[in-house]
Amino acid sequence: MLGHGGSEPRRTRIQAAKRASIVKAALEVFSEAGYSAATLERIAEAAGISKASLLYYFPGKEAVYVAVLEDTLAFWLEPLAALDPAGEPLEEIGRYVTTKLEMSRKRPAASRLFANEILAGAPAIGGFLKGPLKELVDKEAAVISGWIAEGRLAPVDPRHLIMMIWAVTQHYADFDPQVQAVLGREAAKRRFAAARETLLAVLLEGLRPRG
Amino acid sequence: MLGHGGSEPRRTRIQAAKRASIVKAALEVFSEAGYSAATLERIAEAAGISKASLLYYFPGKEAVYVAVLEDTLAFWLEPLAALDPAGEPLEEIGRYVTTKLEMSRKRPAASRLFANEILAGAPAIGGFLKGPLKELVDKEAAVISGWIAEGRLAPVDPRHLIMMIWAVTQHYADFDPQVQAVLGREAAKRRFAAARETLLAVLLEGLRPRG
DNA sequence: GTCTATAGACGGATAGAC
DNA sequence: GTCTATCCGTCTATAGAC
Fold it and tell me: B134 contacts in A (CB within 8 Å)?
């Protein structure tokens, strides 16, 4: 289970660097193949070492997986808490959507890693979802509720709105083969620009306070 | 690869029924575990037969998987082509969203099966995505474009709008553990009703022709 | 610390009795 | 047609040389 606070410290700088390079390689492999289909051999190869060396730094496959999840979660959470209650609601939400979409574009492996984990029933991060993640969503939902109470946003269920934003932004990373098949071989940058425009147009217009 | 037209006919009614029961069991196992983590042992157990018996009806694991995909695709496609160009655009889109959401609620295993397959890079249904699915999207996109040209719908990219609708509806089936963790233990029916309300409110208001 | 070699577990697939 | 027993490949993990 995750969320035990800080990880145990590495002994040396070199060991830490080595672990980091293994985690980076493991992210690629786990996110493409899922846990079961990922092999230590492929991770080791991607990290440029032998399988036995990998197992010198980690006690086993699951430990590598947990390390990757912990490492990626920290990064993934950063922008989640960024809604500013004092800001203009449509601007704040627009920035949130844009930020999440950018994360999908720049770090698709991270997005797919979580998609795989949650599709499998979230065996490793279930506790995190029910704890820290739920708390964060509750906090953001309260901000959105405040905006609605002030009449600065259309009255919608804040939690489902957050889910809606996650869904549409992560979709472009998680289901990329489908997106590419349907849209054709546009360059990724262009595709994401068109996605951003559409998402913002529909969401911001749909959330404008009714008058 | 899929899409070779009709499958070879089964010899007897009994064989067909047996195959169907295996496919049904296999859908559950593949959709929960993904291809690699799914085992023939578990599928056989779910179907109430032995592993060897299963392999009497199918030549191997991959053949079972392909049969499940074919079987599920047929069902999945039905409502996809339902947009009526002569109808009221917001009503048509509202019905489409509601239908897709209902499918996520009633057949979450089917949704997760495709999610797993596409996350893995769509090795088995890549051709289907680039062929029949793309054609269907193009056709629907043309209908939406027509509505926009007539000024009956806000001007947005039709393909990204379709993707948006897929994303928000499938999300509730594919990422159910996360949804439940964040929303708490509401009954599924209630959860989907709240989701429908939120999605329709935002999407339909966001797509209303500017004026 | 890193490697080669290999033990041990597991899962897909086959043989053969019934 | 269905089962038990078994083969064989793959993968995790360990032992031991260097």
Answer: 181-182, 184
